[in-house]
Write a structure and sequence with these properties.
Layout: H1 24-42, H2 48-58, H3 64-73, H4 86-95, H5 109-125, H6 133-153, H7 155-174, H8 187-195, H9 201-222, E1 234-238, H10 244-257, E2 266-269, H11 281-293, E3 297-301, H12 316-329, E4 335-340, H13 342-349, H14 353-358, E5 362-365, H15 370-384, E6 387-388, H16 390-405, H17 414-432, H18 442-446, E7 447-448, H19 450-453
Parallel strand pairs: 1-4, 1-5, 2-3, 3-4, 6-7
Helix pairs in contact: 1-2, 1-3, 1-5, 1-6, 5-6, 8-10, 11-12, 15-16, 15-17
């Protein structure tokens, strides 16, 4: 059992606490039982799966009915959200030096315990495949009570917090002349960056129209005029390497600058970032991603993978249900962009009626033309400080014409350009490395010739 590895010295405290004759380990065991029994009852009748989790984890032999009786008969049980536990007090006393430390602490023990209880609580909530809002909210309140108690009583925690503040203040002083991390440019600069992207003419037109609509809606809102519902959520359909992630990142910042979103950051995930392999945990994992995305854009690449498998052991549909709920609960400060191949995205949107109603704006990303692929190659060269000979440039242009005309399902647009450029740089390095350093000129180090680009295979 996991608790067997949490020996009574594991937190660096004496084996006997000052509040009772029980060992610290036993206090931990029973206080954890109290928390889990409370969570089992908070949304109604405890389940057999919840009782089994407690027995496996803590070494008891309770039935679901025992947990229900415990909740009714134990007065302290219902105070768990507001009253600090004995174990919490032990940990604080350990941090404050009232108990001997048997292991050095790199951080206050309270932080370790807070994380531990959060992990145990989330595992427990998912144990019976039913993740209720009441359980999640109750666990959040319990963890908040712990945090508040530490803030008020734990000197190590207070010192850590002060050290963090001092460190941040010092960093702020050193970076006073630098823009803040969230200072990602003015609206005009962001729009210029969007419109300067290679190709994507229809995408730019659609995105600019969307931005114009959002700006007018914000002006109408400020003047008290009637609002029409405008969804922030989008479907980006197109082949790989067509700039979907780049446009999503710019759009998140633009949304922030026009006041539609509060932060403007981008959280990028795929199926693996939302779906867990255990019953009940996908909802928790997806909810955590949504929470992290609030104020910005949640970008789900290859979103169709969530609905591709419909077997009984697949939890993609659970992620979709949780996502839809999160979009509804946070519709004023969350934008979700789902992306993927056009035909597969159609199947994805048809997998749940709620998806089609919430994702009603489509932006299609065409494949880059041969000329645009070559422009992207030139951009890669300029950005990295490389040039090409005239012959090498002509070869690359012809290469991408042929590559485009013979494209298949593996065609990856700008990603292919990046791979081609990186292989050319490696070829140049292999060619130059045998030469004496003193013979190499800056021009040689910065120029790609036919030997570097010829015979590259993607």
């Amino acid at each position: 059992m996991l608790c067997d590895s949490l020996d009574q010295n594991g937190l660096g405290v004496k084996s006997v606490d000052p509040f009772s004759n029980r060992s610290t380990y036993e206090v931990f065991r029973y206080e954890t039982l109290r928390m889990l029994a409370y969570l089992a009852n908070v949304d109604g009748k405890p389940s057999n799966e919840e009782a089994q989790f407690i027995n496996d984890f803590l070494g008891f032999a309770y039935k679901a009915s025992d947990l229900a009786r415990m909740y009714e008969r134990e007065p302290r049980m219902k105070e768990i959200e507001t009253s600090p536990s004995i174990f919490m007090k032990i940990v604080v006393n350990s941090d404050n030096g009232l108990l001997d430390r048997e292991v050095p602490h790199e951080q206050p023990a309270c932080l370790t315990v807070h994380s531990l209880y959060g992990m145990i609580g989330r595992e427990f909530i998912a144990s019976d495949s039913v993740v209720s809002d009441d359980e999640v909210e109750a666990l959040t309140r319990i963890l908040t009570t712990m945090q508040n108690y530490y803030e008020a009583h734990d000197k190590d925690w207070q010192r850590t917090q002060q050290a963090n503040k001092d460190g941040k203040a010092a960093e702020a002083g050193q970076a006073a002349a630098k823009p803040a991390e969230e200072d990602f440019g003015t609206l005009e600069e962001l729009l210029e960056e969007l419109n300067s992207l290679v190709g994507l003419e229809k995408v730019k037109e659609d995105v600019n129209s969307l931005i114009n609509l959002m700006q007018i809606m914000k002006i109408r809102e400020a003047r008290g005029l009637k609002q029409i519902p405008v969804s922030l959520h989008l479907v980006f359909s197109g082949n790989p390497g067509t700039g979907k992630t780049t446009v999503a990142r710019l759009l998140s910042k633009i949304y922030c600058r026009i006041g539609v979103l509060s932060k403007g950051h981008l959280v990028e995930v795929d199926r693996s970032g939302l779906v867990s392999g255990y019953v009940g945990q996908t909802a928790i994992k997806t909810a955590e991603v949504i929470q992290k995305s609030l104020g910005g854009v949640l970008f789900i690449d290859e979103a169709y993978a969530l609905s591709a498998n419909r077997g009984e052991n697949d939890f993609g549909l659970e992620a979709i249900d949780t996502l839809l709920k999160g979009m509804e609960d946070h519709r004023d400060d969350l934008a979700v962009i789902v992306a993927g191949y056009p035909d597969l995205m159609e199947k994805f949107l048809s997998s749940n009626p709620g998806l089609r109603s919430r994702f009603n704006k489509f932006i299609y990303f065409d494949d880059y033309t041969p000329d645009e692929l070559y422009k992207i190659f030139e951009f890669q060269c300029n950005k990295a400080g490389y040039t090409t000979t005239a012959a090498a440039g002509q070869y690359v242009k012809k290469f991408f014409e042929d590559h485009y005309n013979n494209r298949d399902s593996n065609f990856a647009n700008a990603r292919d350009v990046r791979n081609f450029f990186e292989k050319a740089v490696v070829n140049q390095a292999n060619r130059l490395v045998g030469m004496e350093d003193q013979e190499l000129t800056d021009e040689q180090l910065s120029q790609l010739d036919m030997r570097d680009v010829k015979d590259i295979v993607l």
